[in-house]
Amino acid sequence: MPRITPAELEAARDRLVPDVIADGLSVLFCGINPGLMTAATGHHFARPGNRFWPVLHLSGFTARQLKPSEQEELLACGLGITNVAVRATARADELSDEEFREGGRLLTEKVERFRPRWLAVAGVTAYRTAFGDRKARIGPQDRMIGDTRIWALPNPSGLNAHWTLPAMAEEFRRLRSAAAAQGS
């Protein structure tokens, strides 16, 4: 990946990043919002140090560790990526609660349209705000969107250091097992 300059990162602020999505996915992963590196490259979870791609592989969702630039390969695995909030920022705390709530509304519409079996929100705090569920915990949720089940995952950002790579991979593995059981 070519080196992105600080000016290029700043120019990516507020840029929209297209979803990796198709009808009937097994799991639609949902980040909080695009970071500046994601917006600058157009590739989800692109920031070095983000653990999404390693965890996806370690948990068995992918046969090998994909690079952010290979994100479209997820579709062949029955996986996709979207975000709660669409606006690119340096940090998620730059988003307002209203942006999260609006993101939850738009995400609901997207899930109703594409009908994945699971929506996996990578960031329980974002999930709580977007869906007004202050008691949500990591794991499967009681709430459903149509026939789509919801799972709150730990945020794979390197800033979420209290979740180790093995612990995060185990939570993703639990989701993979649930998705496999539902698909059979």
Chain-wise SSE layout:
Layout: H1 6-11, E1 27-31, H2 36-41, H3 52-58, E2 79-83, H4 97-114, E3 118-122, H5 124-131, E4 139-145, E5 148-153, H6 165-183
Parallel strand pairs: 1-2, 1-3, 3-5
Antiparallel strand pairs: 4-5
Helix pairs in contact: 3-6, 4-5
Explain what the structure shows.
The radius of gyration is 15 Å and the shape is globular. 35% of the residues lie in helices and 15% in strands. It is α/β, with parallel strands linked by helices. The chain has 6 helices and 5 strands, in the order αβααβαβαββα. The protein has helices at 6-11, 36-41, 52-58, 97-114, 124-131, 165-183, and strands spanning 27-31, 79-83, 118-122, 139-145, 148-153. It has one domain (6-11, 21-183): Uracil-DNA glycosylase-like domain (Uracil-DNA Glycosylase, subunit E, 3-Layer(aba) Sandwich). A 5-stranded mixed sheet has the order 2-1-3-5-4, with helices on both faces. The longest helix is centred in the last third of the chain and has 19 residues, at 165-183.
What is the name of the CATH topology? Uracil-DNA Glycosylase, subunit E
Give the overall shape.
globular
Neighbour order of strands in the largest sheet: 2-1-3-5-4
Largest sheet: 5 strands, mixed
Number of discrete domains: 1
CATH class: Alpha Beta
Separation of the first and last Cα atoms: 38 Å
Count the beta strands.
5
Structural class: alpha/beta
CATH architectural group? 3-Layer(aba) Sandwich
**Rounded mean pLDDT score:** 93
Number of helices: 6
What proportion strand?
15-25%
Low-confidence stretches: none
**SSE pattern, N- to C-terminal:** HEHHEHEHEEH
Over the alpha carbons, how many angstroms does the gyration radius reach?
15 Å
**Fourth CATH level, the homologous superfamily:** Uracil-DNA glycosylase-like domain
Share of helical residues = 25-40%
